[in-house]
Design a protein that fits this description.
330 residues, alpha/beta, Rossmann fold, seven-stranded parallel β-sheet, 12% strand, binds guanosine-5'-diphosphate, binds magnesium ion
């Protein structure tokens, strides 16, 4: 068995679709979240370059996000989707993303259990990732993890986000299709989730349709969706994910959205936006790390000068940026 010592070896194994290598490289990305600027110089950087050099065709995997309040059935629905997607021969990647948790594993442990059916399927890659409490860490790490899954040959990547709020909106920025899940009788969580729903939902799912109140939830959503003026009106699908009910309807809704994206040119625009975000996140992280590593003293000196009214903040910032730029050349 290969030792996966260098970034090049690691990338080679990823491109051969080896789950161990995929896991290792995504772990490297996750570990680098604490200091993303410096990480770009190590094994990780080498591996990412090698992945790009070894790619045989443009990147075009479909990225589908699943989001919604905790306990609504995201992991169960993800597992159901894996089943139907595998049924038509797609290689499927799953990235379970926890924006809030400062530690890995916890909240995602249950998800792993729910996706266990697929643990031994060589056509399925399941990884979880957390920001380990570093704000902005996921914006840096998520697009790169998607890139790794894509390089490993995934046709479709399902991104499950834990929790609600700002983070799910951020994740919507990296997906082609965002599925927002709700369930009847979830009280305040559902109310909170609904507030931001229309902006990010491409497909709405009312899961746990075996429970009382499902029809009322659908009615309520239908009224909200009816008010939308966007060219794409999110369809509402009801599912019982624990029994695989509604899987076909959900897949059909996802396919319709994908067709809409391709026909309108929006698919390419979203992929481009994703690539822009990916580059920008890496560049900003490197800049930030250069600032602190190379120019802490200079920044201190400039701060003293500013306090002494011997410079203004704009001139001082120009001075700092010039020093960073010069450092880049070195
Ligand atoms: N009754 C019912 N329970 C469900 C359904 N889907 C998921 N569950 C259960 O709801 C709980 C939370 O599901 P999970 O997929 O982990 O939710 P997540 O936190 O959104 O990922 C689990 O106990 C599931 O078995 C459903 O359609 N009906
Ligand atoms: Mg889950």
């Amino acid at each position: 068995m290969t030792r996966l010592g260098t970034g090049g070896e690691l990338a080679g194994e990823v491109m051969r679709g080896r789950p161990r290598a995929v896991a290792r490289l995504i772990s490297l990305i996750e570990a680098a979240v604490a200091d993303p600027g410096s990480a770009a110089d190590g094994t990780l950087r080498e591996a990412m370059a090698e992945l790009a050099a070894g790619a045989r065709e443009p990147y075009r995997a479909r990225v589908i996000g699943l989001t919604g309040p905790p306990g609504v059935g995201k992991s169960t629905t993800t597992s159901m989707l894996i089943r139907v997607l595998r049924g038509r021969g797609a290689r499927v990647g799953v990235l379970a993303v926890d924006p809030s948790s400062p530690f890995t594993g916890g909240a995602l442990l249950g998800d792993r259990v729910r996706m266990q059916d697929h643990a031994t399927d060589p056509g399925v890659f399941i990884r979880s990732m957390s920001s380990r409490g570093h704000p902005g860490g996921l914006a840096w790490a998520t697009p790169q993890a998607l890139r790794v899954l894509e390089a490993a040959g995934c046709d479709v990547i399902l991104v499950e986000t834990v929790g609600a709020g700002q983070a799910e909106v951020a994740i919507a920025g990296v997906t082609d299709t965002t599925v927002v899940l709700l369930a009847p009788g979830m009280g305040d969580d559902v109310q909170a989730a609904k507030a931001g729903i229309l902006e990010i939902a491409d497909v709405l799912v009312v899961n746990k349709a075996d429970r009382e109140g499902a029809r009322a939830t659908v009615r309520e959503l239908r009224t909200m969706v009816g008010l939308a003026t966007a060219p794409w009106r999110p369809p509402i699908v009801t599912t019982v994910a624990t029994r695989d009910e509604g899987a076909g309807e959900l897949l059909a809704a996802l396919d319709r959205h994908q067709a809409y994206l391709e026909e309108s040119g929006e698919a390419h625009r979203r992929r481009l936006a994703r690539a822009r975000d990916e580059i920008e996140a890496v560049a900003l992280a490197r800049l930030r790390s250069r600032f602190s590593a190379l120019h802490g003293d200079r920044l201190d000196a400039l701060a003293e000068r500013l306090l002494a009214a011997r410079t203004d903040p704009y001139t001082a910032a120009d001075d700092l940026l010039a020093a960073v730029a010069a450092g880049t050349e070195a």
